[in-house]
Amino acid sequence: MYQWRKFEFFEEKSSGKCSIPKEIEGNIQCCSSGRGKIVVGCDDGTVNLLDRGLKFMYGFQAHASSVLFVQQLKLRNFLVTVGMDEQTSPQLSPICLKVFDLDKMQPESSSNNIPVCIQILRVFTNQFPVAKITSFLVLEEAPPILLISVGLDNGCIYCIKGDVARERITRFTLQVENTSDKSSSSITGLGYRVDGRNLLLFAVTPSSVSLFSLQDQPPRRQTLDHIGCDINSVAMSDRSELIIGRPEAVYFYEVDGRGPCWAFEGEKKFLGWFRGYLLCVVADPRTNKNTFNVYDLKNRLIAQSMAVREVSHMICEWGNIVLILNDKTALVIGEKDMESKLDMLFKKNLYTVAINLVQSAQADAKATAEVLRKYGDHLYGKQDYDEAMAQYIHTIGHLEPSYVIQKFLDAQCIYNLTNYLEKLHEKGLASKDHTTLLLNCYTKLKDVEKLDLFIKSEDGLGEHKFDVDTAIRVCRAAGYHEHAMYVAKKAYKHEWYLKILLEDLDRFQEALDYISSLEPYQAGITVKEYGKILLEHKPVETIDILMRLCSVDEELSTKKASNGNRLSILPSPVDFLNIFIHYPQALMAFFEKYISKVEDSPVQVEIHNTLLELYLSNDLNFSSLSQENGSIVPHPKEASSTGASTSSLAENDGVNKDKDCKERLEKGLALLKRAWPADMEQPLYDVDLAVILCEMNSFNEGLLFLYEKMKLYKEVIGCYMQAHDHEGLIACCKRLGDVTKGGDSSLWADLLKYFGEFGEDCSREVKEVLTFIERDDILPPIIVLQTLAKNPCLTLSVVKDYIARKLEQESKLIEEDRKAIDKYQEETSAMRNEIQDLRNNARIFQLSKCTACTFTLDLPAVHFMCMHSFHQRCLGDNEKECPECAPEYRAVLEMKRNLEQNARDHDRFFHQVKSSKDGFSVVAEYFGKGVISKTVEVPQDNAT
């Protein structure tokens, strides 16, 4: 033990000038501490209390003569004393045990503080013979239970257990030694150990160490050792280990026997335990001087060693060690703070001791890391890089990594730097820069094995101790593409994986296979980004992948639905338009496949619009790609190296281009018709866009179809007129000008006007047109003649037959009208004569029967001018009009009112005029009915 280093980790407080207060006059017999004060028992029977700094608080007479033992309780502010009182009887021992409540003072002691004594017990009774007390110990159980053990010189231990304040106690005896030699059997030390529910009592004699199990009845004794110690050489550690001191060594005891042994030479006058330190007052037999040593057993060093005079008592309170000397002086020794200890060790370069010290003191990790850093700096200064790095590694998590990295950036320390960066990643504290630096170290060292271990030795799926993007970027830049791809695939960094495959390795098929294995949503994202490259090298396979992404097979859908899995939302085909910018043929092939497979797509309008634009475009980029046998291959123009001449290639290119354009126009017309079936009001494409495309690309067939579907018949015949297609024009008017089939008969008038302004001989076409105009009576003859007269190439023979027939028809109509006029005139004259006769002549009613009931007419009877007669009873209340003639008369009046009302409805009149084939007949009808023959007199303004 002489090899243990000695340090001064403790120091004397108050400059070593402490003494027992003068108020304590007697000799100190016993001491105790607790609850922030020191209790001193003297041979004059007084008990004195000292506060921090050994200042006198108060004292009181506890016993008549000497105070033998005193103990301050921890849980309650009670003081237990054992002392000599007056002997009232020769049979009774004067030794008494008293319990004082320090929180309660006697009321009669106004000048002096005297606590209340709540209980007095005789230690010795008839059942417990008198003996010399050598040791004393009190254990506080659950309040108010106390366990008091009194060790005697005869090897017995008297125990008192219970509520001592109320004297609800039990007494029992423990026998340790049963020899007559009191020098070897006296109890020199006691110690309690609470082990769960087990209560154990250590008992020490000069010749043995025993252990009692107090939970057993009777208590069971176990001998732990056959060596012992003297008084004041017994202590208990903070782990409830029994410590005894002998001249040759200090021994530790557990419940199962002797434990560690520390060979400290010298007589152990006092033994104690303080915050993990072993306290010893050792008498050197050679110099006969006393030394106070503080041992740090864990770090194997002497924390303090100082020469002292004769010590009478040693106690610990206020975080200090108090040594009371025989001359009533005292030494108050306190532990230095950790910073002072470390400064002392750093000055001596004792870094290992400093590290052990902070670790044993359970200091915070930051403080420990600071010590390790200083030790590492010390080793680094000595160029012991390996050991320095070993210390720096322990600081990870508390020391800024850049501090260490900066020191080891030198090339000769690359191995140490690599080791540090590896540990940094293992603890998950590495940043992107650290990952970059570590991977650069691996690549610089060309250590593929370590690179594999770093990249591929992850514990769990998706768990990475480094920044993934940084690792991929560094490995890719260093040419380790497989490592970069491994990280990207494991971290689900699909963009990185495909970027390496396509841009670095040109492995297009593998990229397509990888995309096929992804979820539809993620696969769609990757195709949007890399679709152009894939189309350039693998167009057919790329389109197949797009078809799988944008459509779901029925079998796959049924399988997923039966398993209860939710189908992910499919990407839309129009989302991939950007990748087809330079490949219109591929886009056309993709959309054609899609609409053939998916019938009710939500984006079919957009797809049809795009396909129409591709089909109808005249300047489609045909020279870059061509479609042959369902696959997209380079155009033959790009294969001039095969030996074909430039002229033949150009000629072949023109033929293929015309053929492709014709096929696309046919597809476009088919799409226009297919996407606008007869039962649909609106098509599955944008009509306005379709019309614009057809106009821009001069696609007349498409325009004709669209105009006809939109019922723009005049625009339809306008297309034929513009093309001077007379045969098609007449055929179109036959189809669209039939009113019975919903057509517009005015188309014939427009057609006739066209031929009238044509300026060339078109007699045959005009005759055919006149046939339909005459059949449906579309135009008056005068209009026909005026229209055709504008064409100087037409002769009268063209319209001779038509005019002859029309004149004959008109003559017949005139004759019919004359006959009707004569008839109406005769009827009018007859009516006037009848009216005149009614006004001037009497009427003779000769009917003999009632017109209503056909019975013989009798009085009272009613006769009407219309020559109808009725019984008055048959008429009821209506005697002013004839029941037979009234309905006809009312109808005439209603008609007259309607005509007068229509005369005021100008909009209806003009609508009938415009919609009628012969507007003049409508006007004549209004005049004939007398509707518009009436004039309204407008009041003249009198202001003239």
TrEMBL record:
<comment type="function">
    <text>Involved in regulating membrane fusion at the tonoplast and the prevacuolar compartment.</text>
</comment>
<keyword id="KW-0863">Zinc-finger</keyword>
<comment type="subunit">
    <text>Core component of at least two putative endosomal tethering complexes, the homotypic fusion and vacuole protein sorting (HOPS) complex and the class C core vacuole/endosome tethering (CORVET) complex.</text>
</comment>
<dbReference type="GO" id="GO:0006904">
    <property type="term" value="P:vesicle docking involved in exocytosis"/>
</dbReference>
<feature type="compositionally biased region" description="Low complexity">
    <location>
        <begin position="639"/>
        <end position="648"/>
    </location>
</feature>
<keyword id="KW-0175">Coiled coil</keyword>
<dbReference type="InterPro" id="IPR016528">
    <property type="entry name" value="VPS11"/>
</dbReference>
<keyword id="KW-0862">Zinc</keyword>
<dbReference type="InterPro" id="IPR036322">
    <property type="entry name" value="WD40_repeat_dom_sf"/>
</dbReference>
<dbReference type="GO" id="GO:0030897">
    <property type="term" value="C:HOPS complex"/>
</dbReference>
<dbReference type="GO" id="GO:0009705">
    <property type="term" value="C:plant-type vacuole membrane"/>
</dbReference>
<dbReference type="InterPro" id="IPR001841">
    <property type="entry name" value="Znf_RING"/>
</dbReference>
<feature type="repeat" description="CHCR">
    <location>
        <begin position="392"/>
        <end position="543"/>
    </location>
</feature>
<dbReference type="GO" id="GO:0030674">
    <property type="term" value="F:protein-macromolecule adaptor activity"/>
</dbReference>
<dbReference type="InterPro" id="IPR057308">
    <property type="entry name" value="CHCR_PEP5_VPS11"/>
</dbReference>
<dbReference type="InterPro" id="IPR024763">
    <property type="entry name" value="VPS11_C"/>
</dbReference>
<feature type="domain" description="RING-type">
    <location>
        <begin position="850"/>
        <end position="885"/>
    </location>
</feature>
<dbReference type="Pfam" id="PF23266">
    <property type="entry name" value="VPS11_N"/>
</dbReference>
<keyword id="KW-0472">Membrane</keyword>
<keyword id="KW-0926">Vacuole</keyword>
<feature type="region of interest" description="Disordered">
    <location>
        <begin position="629"/>
        <end position="656"/>
    </location>
</feature>
<dbReference type="InterPro" id="IPR000547">
    <property type="entry name" value="Clathrin_H-chain/VPS_repeat"/>
</dbReference>
<dbReference type="GO" id="GO:0007033">
    <property type="term" value="P:vacuole organization"/>
</dbReference>
<dbReference type="Pfam" id="PF17122">
    <property type="entry name" value="zf-C3H2C3"/>
</dbReference>
<dbReference type="GO" id="GO:0008270">
    <property type="term" value="F:zinc ion binding"/>
</dbReference>
<dbReference type="GO" id="GO:0048284">
    <property type="term" value="P:organelle fusion"/>
</dbReference>
<protein>
    <recommendedName>
        <fullName>Vacuolar protein sorting-associated protein 11 homolog</fullName>
    </recommendedName>
</protein>
<dbReference type="InterPro" id="IPR015943">
    <property type="entry name" value="WD40/YVTN_repeat-like_dom_sf"/>
</dbReference>
<feature type="coiled-coil region">
    <location>
        <begin position="807"/>
        <end position="841"/>
    </location>
</feature>
<dbReference type="InterPro" id="IPR013083">
    <property type="entry name" value="Znf_RING/FYVE/PHD"/>
</dbReference>
<feature type="repeat" description="CHCR">
    <location>
        <begin position="562"/>
        <end position="764"/>
    </location>
</feature>
<dbReference type="Pfam" id="PF12451">
    <property type="entry name" value="VPS11_C"/>
</dbReference>
<dbReference type="GO" id="GO:0033263">
    <property type="term" value="C:CORVET complex"/>
</dbReference>
<comment type="similarity">
    <text>Belongs to the VPS11 family.</text>
</comment>
<keyword id="KW-0479">Metal-binding</keyword>
<dbReference type="GO" id="GO:0007032">
    <property type="term" value="P:endosome organization"/>
</dbReference>
<dbReference type="Pfam" id="PF23356">
    <property type="entry name" value="TPR_PEP5_VPS11"/>
</dbReference>
<dbReference type="GO" id="GO:0006886">
    <property type="term" value="P:intracellular protein transport"/>
</dbReference>
